Amino acid sequence: MDFIAGAIGGGLSTAVGYPLDTVKVRIQTERHYNGIWHCIQETYRTEKVWGFYKGVSASVLTVSAISSVSFGTYKNFLCTICKLRYGAADAKPSKLDVSLAGGAAGAVRVVLTTPSEVAKVRMQTQRNPHPSVTSPQPVSKPKYQGSLHCLKVVAKEEGFRGLYKGCSALLCRDCSSSAIYFLTYSALCDWLTPAGKNKPGFLVVLLSGGFAGVLAWGLATPMDVIKSRMQTDESEQHKYKGLIHCTKESVRKEGAKVLFKGLGLNCIRAFPVNMVVFVTYEAVLRFTDRYTNIK
C-alpha cells in the first residue's frame, strides 16, 4: 500500500509545485535572469501561463511512479533493517536505520528519475513563444514537441548515455537529500506527537512534511544546479566532461554562489509540495487501514 500512497502523493505534489520548478531550472541553467521575479515576468511575457507547465504531463506520471518506488523502497528497506537488527519488522527504528533506508530509496529513484529529468529540464529551458506574442523574426519550430519526443530525440542524437546525463550529480543529490528527508520527517513526527498517541495528527504531518522538504532541498540545491547544467548540455555543445568538470567550470565562471542558485525558490516550493506529499501518503494509508479493519 505504501507504493500506491506514494504514487498519489507524488502526482498531486507535482501539479502544485511545477510552475516554480520551471522557474528554478531556468534560473539555474541560464545567466540572463536577474532573479526569481524577472524570470517569472519574462516567461509569462513570452510564453504565457503554458510556459510554466512545459513537460508537466509526463512529469506528473513519472513523479507518481518515482514517488511510489521511493516510499515503497523506503518502507521495505526499513522493515528489512529492523528485522535484521531487532528481530521484528515492526520494531521501532533508530535514526540511523531511517537514514540508511532513506538513502537507499534515493539511490533506487535515480535509475527511474534520470531520463525523465533530462526530458523535463530540456522542455523547461526550450524557448517556445506563445502564439499571441508578436515577434519581429519568424518563429522556428521547437526542437522538442513534447516529453516523449524529447526522449526519442535525445536517444537518437546522444545515445543511451544521453538519457542518463547528470546521473552522477543526481545520485549525490538524491541519496543525501532522501536520507535527510525521511529522517527529518520521522524525527519531527516523533517530537511533535503527544505521548500516548501512536500516530501523528494531520497538522503534525503537514508541518513535518513541509520542514523535511525544506531541509532536504537546502542540502540538495548545489548538486541540483550541477545536474540541471549537465542535462541541458546537448550533443553539439559538449561544455561539460562530467560532474567534477561541470562543478569547476561553473564555480570558475560565476563564483561559489552559483551552487546555490534557486536555493530560496527550492525551499519556498518544497514546503507546500511536501506537505501535500506526506498528508496524502498518510491519508491513503489510514483510509485503507480503516477499510481493511472494517472488512
Q: How would you portray this structure in words?
A:
The structure is a single chain. The chain is 75% helix and 0% strand. The chain is mostly helical and 295 residues long. Helix 3 packs antiparallel against helix 4, helix 4 packs across helix 6 and helix 6 runs antiparallel to helix 7. The longest helix has 32 residues. It is globular and about 60 Å long.
Helix-strand blueprint:
Elements: H1 2-29, H2 36-47, H3 56-86, H4 95-125, H5 147-163, H6 167-192, H7 202-232, H8 243-254, H9 263-294
Helix pairs in contact: 1-2, 1-3, 1-9, 3-4, 4-5, 4-6, 6-7, 7-8, 7-9
Number of helices: 9
Structural class: mainly alpha
Instruction: Please report the total strand number as a whole number.
Output: 0
Instruction: Describe the largest sheet.
Output: none
Measured between the Cα atoms of the first and last residue, the distance is 16 Å
Q: Helix proportion of residues, in percent?
A: over 70%
Envelope shape: globular
Provide the descriptors you would attach to this structure in a database record.
single chain, 295 residues, mainly alpha, globular
A few lines on this structure:
Helices cover 75% and strands 0% of the residues. It has 295 residues and is an all-alpha fold. The longest helix has 32 residues.
